[in-house]
Amino acid sequence: MSILFLILFLVPFAASAAAFMFRHIPKWYAVVLSCVPLAILIAGQGRWIGSNIQYAWFPAMSIQFHLNIDALSLVFLYLTAVIIPISLLAAGSLAYAHIFYGLVFLLQGLLIGFFTARDLAVFTIFWEAMLIPLYFIINLWGGPQRQMASLKFLIYMIAGSVLMVAAVLALYFAAGKSFNLDTLAGVSAGAPYAVWLFGIFMLAFAVKTPLFPFHAWLPDAYCQAPVAGTILLSAILSKAGIYGILRIGMELFPTLLQEWSPLLLGLSIAGVFYGGFAAWMQRDFKRLIAYSSFSHVNFVMVGLFVWSQTAHSGAILQALNHGITIAALFLVAGWLEERLGTTSFGHVSGLAKFLPQLCWLTLLFVLSSVALPGTNSFVGELLILFGLFVNYPWAAAFLALTVILSVIYMLRWMQKVYFDEPSLFQDSWMDITVKELAIAAPLAFLILWIGIYPAPVLNQIKPASQKIIAEETT
Amino acid sequence: MNIVLNWVDFAAISPLLIILVGALLVLLLETFDESASKKYAGILTLATIALAIYAAIVSPPSHNNLLTPWLRFDSLERLFTVLFLAIGFGSALLSSSFFQRFEATRGEYFFLLLSALFGLILVGASADFLTLFLGLETLSIALYVLCGYMKKWEISHEAAIKYFLMGALAAAFLLYGIALIYGAVGTTRFDALLGGYHALAAGSDKVLFLSGIALVTLGLAFKAAIVPFHVWAPDVYDGAPTPVTAFMAVGTKVGAFAAFVRVFFDALPQFDILWHEGIALLAYPTLIYANIVAIRQQQLRRFFAYSGISHAGFLLIPLAAGTPDALSALLFYLVVYALATLGSFAVLAFLDERTEGVLLRDLKGLFRRSPLLAGVLALCLLTLAGIPPTAGFFAKFYVFKVAFEAGYYALVIVGLLTTILSAYYYLRIVAIMFAEVPEETASPKRSWPAALVGAAAFAAIAVISCFPAPLLQLLQLK
Prior knowledge:
The structure holds 2 protein chains of 2 kinds. Chain A is an all-alpha fold. Chain A contains 21 helices and 2 strands. Chain A has a domain at 260-474. Chain A has helices at residues 2-21, 27-43, 71-90, 97-116, 120-129, 131-141, 146-161, 164-174, 181-187, 194-208, 218-224, 227-252, 254-259, 261-281, 285-305, 309-340, 356-369, 376-391, 393-418, 434-452, 455-473, and strands at residues 52-58, 63-68. In chain A, helix 11 crosses helix 15 (285-305) and helix 18 (376-391) runs antiparallel to helix 19. Chain B is mostly helical. Chain B has 20 helices and no strands. Chain B is globular. Chains A and B meet through strand 1, helix 5, helix 6, helix 7 and helix 8 of A and helix 14, helix 16, helix 17, helix 18 and helix 20 of B.
């Protein structure tokens, strides 16, 4: 399988180089290329666990270019493979489209590397490197304030993770000059200043995800980015932080994570509420979805910070779900923006009459976002709440209230835009085309599939969440 | 006692001889046929340097005791020689591109460039304080003239005078330091320094020696533009013609650190913890000051002066650590810095149209005008900022590792925090390149020599980023 893994890793980079070089690349061509990793993943289904790539990258510091797929990696690989083509499809006609495709492919390759890195130095390199394509995507194709938003995004990210290099080095010396995560897991607890090292890593992950209150970069970056960029940021970048907590936090610092659990839980529950209330206050639906994404990501983190296997599988599942749902929501919001020419709402209403298909599609995704039973988020959030209830029943009761909160702000948007009294018809209000429906269909399918029959996905996730708890108890 | 030089000895010093002959030929060509010089001086220089690179790679070491007291023939010397010559080759190409735009006589210019290279090679090969001093002075005197080479540029006058005064002062410090060391141990030979130092009884002799070392350090710190001995650098870089600035930013910087390596890694490895502590103390202000001031720069030659100072700060970290691993870290950093800086100047060469050089606002919308140039400059700036996965990240990471190992934790933290600042100002330039195009700007002029430098730097950075192992193996000396 290692050959196939190498191909999986290299295809996006090759595609990226090709896209940078050839000026006129038709969009369908780029989409097909971006689907190749998904096709490879499906072709090798069931045999991925344990695939390896390894070569000595920087011998002077014993950095091994070591990639390895385990159950946890695989979940995020699938998410990446699904979301990247969607984001390309979501992009409208862009100037310098080939550069855009190249950057998205580059990001895809870096993400595959990041989600499989088994060497802490390689992990760090991919962690930082993935910022660059995103920075350019916001900076080149974003809204009017894209310069400021992209720089703010980048500086926040770098400031959040700059000390990680020092922490990585501290672990490297504590482990007797090795970056291998398996070796590090044995020594990290006893490393000098382990609390500080853990804090530094958590800060980096908290900024990227973002955990409350490290989210100041989020509204600008999400709103100024082009639709495709927003999808990448919300569906994948936030998962990088979550993956970091799972990979580094749980593998290297399990005891510290448990000790800090009350504080981190408190922050993430606060984040769920903050995001919910902020979303409620918005008069701009792109910002509204941005804050709702923030709120839901913090919900996922609640699941991570409770030490229970149920909550962890819930969190991993919900990370996947959130990726799918938020991509779908930004996708339909992008289409709505195209038709209205604005992202603020309140000017027009009753669009359901003119755009019935878009309306029902949006409603499906909104219902998934508010975790209606039968949709994917219901399963994930329920598992998180179960896990939380066992340890902190009161917190679980409190957190369950946010489900109502998300219904309030989401349906308020639906109500104002799609229902109410119909406004006068305008020519630009064309209902979605078959092509657009075809783009949304796979997402809708995934939402319903995971919602109605989650067993196959949960079986995939189980080994990942079990491994962490098992290691802790032994 | 051997008193004749054999062919093998001439072969050993052939890079120096080739440069010397080439320089004289360029000067003769200018004297006898000015129009031919206009056409061929650049090509002659490039051919000379290329031949010297070949000679440096294949030349055998000499064991003749007429040479060995003065020059070293070890793998470090070979590495430095090839590195200097490669930098010289790049600078000569950039100079040809410069002369497509600005009119000036070529012969003397290339003669001076080759002389400066001669000096640099001498520094990298020095086995005695006298050869070291000779090399540094040959380099500096050529550069004083090169700085003011555009006689009609007013900013160049100021730059040349400042550089000359400051440089002369630094040379005086250096020489005085050498004299004190000679006074203490009775020799200027590097291989006798460590033994001489340990033989010193504590007391006045030791004070004499240490004062000498302090003055030598100070003199070299001037050349390397380390805070607080950096004040000349921004004005001089600002006023000099762009290819000369490129040569100073890369060649002089690498030369000064080559001198540091020769004296403090080769001759006096870890002779006194005090010196290492002192270097660490210089690194803090260098890192902090340069990174803060660089944020405000508008003129790119001046910007690269501050960028160079901040990188000198990073280069001080392995010097402070002083472990054997530190030498590889230092050399790796130097190579990456040289590549990225030359690559950046290659892009600037396309836009260089005025006396004051390229301003930040000239870069506005470069991406729309020429995506290729913007791509090269962006990669070079990301490398300088040390953003992974570029080779710049490995260079910084390696330096931090060395510092961590030697216990300079605070230096690691300060270094990391200043990378936030440097990421900000390098990426600000990148952001400007990708901004909208202003109305009146013309598209960049074509220039194949600069394109060659840019492409080579781009390719080298890309290869080193993906496969740093071969370069590292090359740098694992001894």
